Amino acid sequence: MTDATGSGELTTEDRRELTELLARYAWAFDTRDGEAYAALFTEDGMLQGPRTTIAGRDALRDWAANYDLTISRHISSNVVIEGDATQATVKSYLMSWTIDEDGIKPPLLGSYHDSVVKEPDGWRIAHRRLVIDHWGE
Fold first, then answer.
1. Does the pLDDT value for residue 6 go beyond 70?
2. How far apart are CA 79 and CA 15, in angstroms?
3. What is the pLDDT of residue 70?
4. What does R_g of the chain's alpha carbons equal in angstroms?
5. Following DSSP, what letter does each residue of 80-112 receive, concatenated?
6. What is the pLDDT of residues 85-126, one digit of tens each?
7. What are the b/e assignments for 90-118, b being 16+ CB within 10 Å?
8. Consecutive H or E run containing 137
9. DSSP characters for 26-78?
10. Cα–Cα distances in Å, from 136 out to 95, 102, 110?
11. What are the residues whose beta carbons fall under 8 Å from the beta carbon of 47, sequence distance 6 or more?
């Protein structure tokens, strides 16, 4: 079925791929795999948070690979996807734990607000905005 823009509706497969994109984001960041992290974004993709803005795959790769945390675990949930077969917005809740030499810290709570596009090799994040509700510090 085609929507008003002629680009088609999101399929069940698109929704599955977008949900997996969120999971791959968490795994790549938590394992400090800068290459995998950067590959989740468009070439000019951007991460915007309250303390930083990073743009472009090279900068995103270096940031994720060198982020200074002993251990972190990110969990995304309550995913809402709206859009068509070529672009979408994805909202999700975030809970993130940090573990260092002093133990587990209270979780950071917030949400991700993503603009994603479908490229020839799959869905990519064009812009991710992080909103923090509770810092967990």
1. no
2. 10
3. 81
4. 15
5. EEEEBSSEEEEEEEEEEEEEETTEEPPPEEEEE
6. 999 999 999 999 999 888 998 999 999 999 999 999 999 999
7. bbbebebbbeeeeeebebbebebebbbeb
8. none
9. HHHHHTT-HHHHHHTEEEEEEEE-SS-EEESHHHHHHHHHT---SEEEEEEEE
10. 10, 14, 10
11. 41, 53, 54, 55, 60, 63, 128, 130
Tokens of 76: 């995304």
CB atoms < 10 A from the CB of 43, how many? 11
Query: Amino acid identity, residue 119?
Result: E
In total, the chain counts a number of residues equal to 137
Report d(CA 87, CA 76) in Å as an integer. 20
Assigned token pair, 31: 């394992």
Q: Taking the mean position of all CA atoms in its chain, how far away is CA 137?
A: 22
To 5 degrees, how large is the angle CA 110–CA 106–CA 135?
40
Q: Which single residue is written with the structure tokens 């995913």?
A: 79
